[in-house]
Amino acid sequence: MSYLHEVRSAGLYAVVVTSSANAVQVLDAAGLNGMFDARVDGVIARDRDLKGKPAPDTFLAGADEVGVAPEAAAVFEDALSGVEAGRAGGFATVIGVDRVGQADQLRAHGADVVVTDLSELIQ
């Protein structure tokens, strides 16, 4: 969570994109509601008829929600299909988050950088 705090302190936008239909409840339980400028979740994706990963639709909708072009935004993703979606959407940077020992696969699917914890990105 320290990375998210750093992002917010820097005045950068933060958008949560998830296929989960219960994202609001998960964010509440984690104490993260209010940390994001926008949310594109499974409910919103269904209502807007957005294609899921590896299509970039939900990530593009998230960038659009805050008025940022994909070429000026980053995607942070731990799933191979999500990394593919970020790359397909033309995002400036795709960060792969390796939670299960698949760093090479994340890179092969389009990650520019792979970390095991977002705190590795704090300088």
Explain this structure to me?
The protein has 123 residues and is α/β, with parallel strands linked by helices. It has one domain (2-121): Rossmann fold, CATH 3.40.50.1000. The protein has 6 helices and 5 strands, in the order H-E-H-E-H-H-E-H-E-H-E. The chain has helices at 2-9, 23-30, 42-48, 57-65, 80-88, 103-108; strands spanning 15-17, 38-40, 74-77, 93-97, 113-115. The strands form 2 sheets. A 3-stranded parallel beta sheet has the order 3-4-5. Strands 1-2 form a two-stranded parallel sheet. Strand 1, helix 2 (23-30) and strand 2 (38-40) form a beta-alpha-beta unit. The model has no long low-confidence stretch (mean pLDDT 96).
Quick rundown:
The protein is of the alpha/beta class. 38% of the residues lie in helices and 15% in strands. It has one domain (2-121): 3-Layer(aba) Sandwich (Rossmann fold).
How are the SSEs ordered, and which strands pair?
Layout: H1 2-9, E1 15-17, H2 23-30, E2 38-40, H3 42-48, H4 57-65, E3 74-77, H5 80-88, E4 93-97, H6 103-108, E5 113-115
Parallel strand pairs: 1-2, 3-4, 4-5
The strand line-up of the biggest sheet is 3-4-5
Strand content: 5-15%
Contiguous helical run count = 6
CATH homologous superfamily classification: HAD superfamily/HAD-like
Stated plainly, the CATH topology is called Rossmann fold
* DSSP E strands, number: 5
This entry's quaternary arrangement is single chain
pLDDT average, as an integer? 96
State the shape: globular
Instruction: Output the helix-strand order.
Output: HEHEHHEHEHE
Distance between the termini: 15 Å
How many separate domains? 1
Extract low-pLDDT stretches: none
State the CATH architecture: 3-Layer(aba) Sandwich
Q: Give the class from helix and strand content and strand pairing.
A: alpha/beta
Q: Please state the CA-atom Rg, rounded to the nearest Å.
A: 14 Å
User: Could you name the CATH class?
Assistant: Alpha Beta
